[in-house]
Amino acid sequence: MRMLRLLKKILELDFALRGLLITSISSNRNCSQALPHVQPFLNPAVESRSVPQAVMAAIKVPSSGSFSRNPLVGSTSQNPALKPGPNGSVFISSGIPDLDKILGGGFCLGSLIMVMEDPEAPHHMLLLRNFMAQGLVQNQPLLYASPSKDPRAFLGTLPSPMLSQDNKPHDRVEQDKGLRIAWQYKKYFEEGEQTLDNRDNKLEYCNDFDLRKPLERHILTRKPIECISMEDSTIDSLRERCSKFLAQNPSKSCAGRIAIQSFCAPQLEYFNKDWDMVSFIKSLKGMIRSSDAVAMITFPHSLLSTSFSKRWQHLADILLSVRAIPDDDKELANLLTGYQEMVGLLNVHKVARINTQVPFVLEASTFSIKLRKRRSLVLECINQAPVDGSSGISYGTSAWSSELFIISFGMDNGC
Amino acid sequence: MSSPSIGARRRRPVDWGQASLNLTRAENQTPFQRWRFDLEGREGFAQKRKTNEEYCLVLTNNHSGTTLLNIGGRVLLIEDCIETSAAFVIYHIVKCSLSSPRSSGVVIFVALSHPFSHYDRVLRKLGCNLAVHRDNKRFIFFDMLMLECQGGNDGNVTKDGLVELFGKIQKEVEVISSKQESERYVMVIIDDFSLIEAAVNGTSNHGSDFLHYCRTLTSEFGSSLVILNHEDIYLGPERPLILQMEYFADILIKAQPLATGVAADVHGQLTVINRNSRHLLKNSITSFQFKLNENGIECFFPGTRT
Amino acid sequence: MADYVCKALRNGALEGELAPALTIKDTIHSPFGLHVFDYILSQLSSFILAGKAQSRGLVIVAFSRSPSCYDEILNKGGIDALLLDRCIQILDCYSDPLGWKHQLTESGIISSSYPDSVRVKVCRDVRNSGELLSRIMELGKGLVEGGKEQFFVAIDSVTEMFRHASLSSVAGLLSSLRSNVQVSGSLWLLHSDLHDGSANAVIEYTSSIVGIVEEASMQFRSWQNANREGISLLDQNSGKGKFHVRSKRRNGRVKLMVEEFQIGQAGITFKPVSSEEESVNRTLLPKVQFNLQLSEKEQMDRSKVVLPFEHQERGKAEQIYGGRRSLMESKNEMPPSAENVLMTEGSGTGQILYVRDSDEDLPDSDEDPDDDLDI
């Protein structure tokens, strides 16, 4: 709505302004000086940016949904892979548009993401794949460590971004509908997008990935990707590799991504060295924080002792967990809408609190993982199917229904 | 989404120690009271006073005349869990001891969980400029984000890193307390003790030893010690580690989530236990709920928030 | 009863027997062990200073508190400092137990050092139990000037000793203290929940009297843990608790005693256990706005309330609840009005008379309107 009001105000201005608007989109320059009379129209929430930049934000990050909360700062618009967040933090995409939305914009630079694996289902791999593929598409350095013998083979399974025809996320279409009032400018929006796209093939903040299509080979060879097999390396050498990797990429604009799969897998040499692992995670956290990179670690938490599992969870900035859902469970199918499409559940336990003391309160903490058209990963709030009149309860809020879900099935939160 | 528990809403606080009379009187005037978490002057805790028609949970001091306790050199332990972080208590203690007009305190901050920029931004929104205080030598910051105590090639853990860190802390304390011109008090804050344990690989007692030495500063120089730790990681055989800290803590602050789940209006609840063992005074326990804002904390008794 | 303990310690050891040794145990639910320790220590020191005790001197091994703390405790009565110096020695294992400060001072990083004073001697390596023992003995012998007289040893935290040394070496130190002819008695504090069962058992085995500080609400142990925590918090808040003593007597019997204590402004006070459960209940129950239990008066009042239909069995006047007077009553008390007479006639048969108002009523409206209800 705020967006709409803003656009109306723009439209009220002289038509001649339009030329200016477009030029400023392509040049990304703050032109508030050139437009002194634009200033009074600005909504207080977006006071720190000029109108064209606000429009830019709408074009560039259509899927964010909450851009009005986050005033744009600095020159991050030069790098579409980064998005300014609140409190001076910078977001980087998780590779899953819905997850970005849930977390308020994505992963904060400098944060450590920990994913608690389900002992049975490989859903953490979905998160990991999208996380890595997003980085590669955006030409960011990547370090991947895995307990398998040949970690490089895993790169072949990374998904590829969808083609431009279908890459519009579903809600983007809705948003376009909402912008009908500016229909006559629509072509210019498209134009603006084109200019972005032309610079580097489809460089978007967050891509939708087609899980059935492997990533093109040239992307894999574009930037050196470090792959480490944790099976034959000690924890110290892993630490060294990580710190070297982060030291290689000092430039802030291009954050590196570190992905570590199944960190405490039992076949590893340091599986029993609980303290070594905690100490590694602690130092990795420190390194990432000071070098503005992002790391994602998945770990089978059931293999750790409870107290160490808690330690790990405390170390995480963002803590997620994935869970399998039982197959062909009639009771569940009756209770949840869209049960057939669900492949698992995602829980958000902790959201990064960087540069702030205020917790980010989610409306719901449990989400269903669905594969739309069997190829794109979608996260949705769990909705309870309409229940029989006998129970007489029909609250609609997702938070409530997810709570109920957990209670009624006695599932723990994974902690 | 969910509101605070309905059961809690019905209850009205009855007996909250010294504040009880005042509170019931005020209830007739206003539908609910706002509690402010404040620190005045030197230290002390859980002293409730009424100022400007507002209740303050004041951390009183032994300079302000009203204080009953002589509490120079107390140990404050803050415990939290994964669901509810208590880091905000630290920010507020820093803020209050630096920006309260009566206080001339110096904060020595051992940071293991965040870089300076984080604290700077958080505190700036609370109205306290850490960078300026750092230049004035009132905020002494030790960036221990990369603290590692693994010495040599054999991977053996050495205590040298911690000894060195302690030496630095004591040196600062000595410098401050040697300045005669103002009677300054020193507060040593350790942001996340569990990370110190991780830095020494959890082996042997180095972490506890370090803590013990920090404690000796409280009796030697009258400085106070604030430690943040996580309660839920000490389970089973590790439980004594946190119990040991609880034994020597004079004040214990526990942050817990609401029993009814996450809520947008109430972020959790705090229990303050004023153990006060050295002064043979009555203990007092206070518990209240809180909501965090960018510029402060709102504290209120369960059910007094609409 | 705490006085019994003090007396036992004051009287000391008989020749050829082990010296009495008191272990004070507490838990985090009732962390008042130090208060009890202080109480006994101050009693004992006043006996010693007055020359009434078997021991002539007191050696305090300070692990968990700074020596200056003890000055406060011992100086309460305003005792002459010279006398204190002659009778009391403190081995400071608190300020620099591992020699870190010494090391830092040597390398010039920090400047403060801890010179031994007349009363306080610093121990810089507490990990070496043998050396610790010899330091204690040395201090004690200094007090009694090499004579045959005896001294008392108080260790303020065995828990800290366990942190630095193994179970066997700590137990060895304690038992060699007990068996030394020059030690008239010893006293130590243990936080029992910080140690496993074996450590607790070893310490109890080594001592002749065990004093256990417990929360006052032990009978509620069966409650859920969460509740228990809440109650122990209340206990801590009120500063109340129970002090159990198990004393191994010379004749082979075990004397068991319980006492209540209360920590107030003036320090700790002991009193015999109050028999009234009521008073316990009153302090135990959480103070909330609504009542969980009824007071006696309320219970009496409640028992007086006549429940609906209860009166019928007693053959009393039928009373229809809801404030209306019953028929019998109205008969007895007031002259019946015309309506009442009519009604009473019908009431005997229990029939319902229904006269159809008009022909507009459909015949089937005579039927019970609810007869399709399937109850």
Using brief descriptors, characterize the structure shown:
heterotrimer; A: 415 residues; alpha/beta; 2 domains; nine-stranded mixed beta sheet; three-stranded antiparallel beta sheet; 35% helix; disordered C terminus; B: 306 residues; Rossmann fold; three-stranded mixed beta sheet; 14 strands; globular; ELP6 (chain B); P-loop_NTPase (chain B)
Q: Could you walk me through the main structural features you see in this protein, from its secondary elements to its overall organization?
A:
Chain B: This is Elongator complex protein 6. Chain B: It comes from Nepenthes gracilis (Slender pitcher plant). Chain B: Belongs to the ELP6 family. Chain B: One of its GO terms (cellular component) is elongator holoenzyme complex. Chain B: Pathway: tRNA modification; 5-methoxycarbonylmethyl-2-thiouridine-tRNA biosynthesis. The complex is a heterotrimer of chains A (415), B (306) and C (375). With 415 residues, chain A is of the alpha/beta class. Chain A folds into two domains: 1-60 and 168-200, no CATH class; 65-166 and 202-409, P-loop containing nucleotide triphosphate hydrolases (Rossmann fold, 3-Layer(aba) Sandwich), CATH 3.40.50.300. Chain A contains 14 helices and 14 strands. Chain A has a nine-stranded mixed beta sheet with strand order 8-5-9-10-4-11-12-13-14, with helices on both faces. In chain A, strands 1-2-3 form a three-stranded antiparallel beta sheet, with no helix packed on it. Chain A is globular, with a radius of gyration of 22 Å. The two termini of chain A are 39 Å apart. By secondary structure, chain B is an alpha/beta fold. Chain B has a single domain, classed as Rossmann fold. Chain B has helices at 6-10, 20-29, 87-99, 116-125, 130-135, 160-178, 193-199, 206-221, 239-248; strands spanning 35-39, 47-51, 54-59, 75-80, 106-111, 139-143, 150-151, 156-157, 186-191, 224-230, 251-256, 268-274, 284-293, 296-300. A nine-stranded mixed beta sheet of chain B has the order 6-5-9-10-4-11-12-13-14, with helices on both faces. Chain B has a three-stranded mixed beta sheet with strand order 1-3-2. The longest helix of chain B is centred in the middle third of the chain and has 19 residues, at 160-178. Residues 1-71 and 277-281 of chain B have low confidence and may be disordered. By secondary structure, chain C is an alpha/beta fold. Chain C is 40% helix and 18% strand. Classes of the chains: A alpha/beta (415), B alpha/beta (306), C alpha/beta (375). Chains in contact: A-B, B-C.
